[in-house]
Design a protein that fits this description.
With 213 residues, the chain is an all-alpha fold. It has helices at residues 4-31, 38-44, 49-53, 59-79, 88-104, 108-118, 121-144, 154-171, 173-180, 187-212. α1 crosses α4 and α1 crosses α6 (108-118). The radius of gyration is 20 Å and the shape is globular.
Length: 213
């Protein structure tokens, strides 16, 4: 019995922390760091500000935790590529993992777009600590390709193009829904988008193989 209390408390604290992160992610995506208040986050998470501060020391700490939860797994997914050959199957797995992660955090892409539009210190920190390392890691994988299909000038364009394709699908979801009349983030449409990206990746690899031959 002595172990039940602490274990339950820890589990409940973890659930509460995740709820705070989910709420904060959605609010930061709408208003950014500067435009979102701690009281608003706490109220939306059914907590008092004092309870929220039990989990996060400040609004900045909460914002940093939201970004880390969202972006670090993407770095880890791309970071696993060096242990595998650059095959179609390897890229299929990577694309699937990235899409699945973003689907579980659909507001992350909108948060990134919000900070991009508004600029300021929040954008600088986001880029310096997370987005630049993500892009640089992807560029390393492009340069590691023995075929040298992408030139040094083209590699950044290819990587940013993929970034727009993947992140843009989530960030632009409200507009896409207005255009096509269906939810781009529904399981069916996410599966379709993932299939499209995998097909595009395979076509690009075919072009590369054609050039090599």
């Amino acid at each position: 019995m002595t172990l039940t209390g602490p274990t339950t408390t820890t589990a409940e604290g973890s659930v509460t922390r995740e709820r705070i992160l989910d709420v904060a992610e959605a609010l930061f995506a709408q208003r950014g760091l500067a435009g979102t208040g701690v009281r608003e986050i706490a109220r939306s998470a059914d907590l008092t500000p004092a309870s929220l501060y039990n989990h996060f020391a400040s609004k900045q700490a909460l914002y940093d935790a939201v970004i880390e939860r969202g972006v670090r797994p993407l770095l880890e997914v791309i970071g696993r590529l060096p242990s595998r050959e650059h095959t179609a199957e390897a890229f299929d797995d990577t694309i699937g993992a990235v899409m699945a992660h973003l689907a579980s955090h659909p507001h992350l892409a909108r948060l990134i777009h919000h900070e991009t539009i508004n600029g300021g210190d929040s954008l600088k920190g986001l880029v310096e600590h997370w987005i630049r390392p993500l892009i640089e890691q992807a560029q390393v994988e492009v340069r590691r390709d023995q075929s040298d299909y992408w030139s040094d000038d083209e590699a950044p364009l290819m990587i940013t193009g993929w970034f727009h394709l993947v992140v843009g699908h989530f960030a632009m979801a409200p507009m896409l829904q207005e255009i096509f009349g269906e939810d781009p983030l529904s399981p069916h449409n996410l599966e379709r988008q993932t299939r499209f990206l995998r097909k595009l990746s395979r076509l690009m690899m075919q072009d590369r193989e054609s050039k090599d031959s």
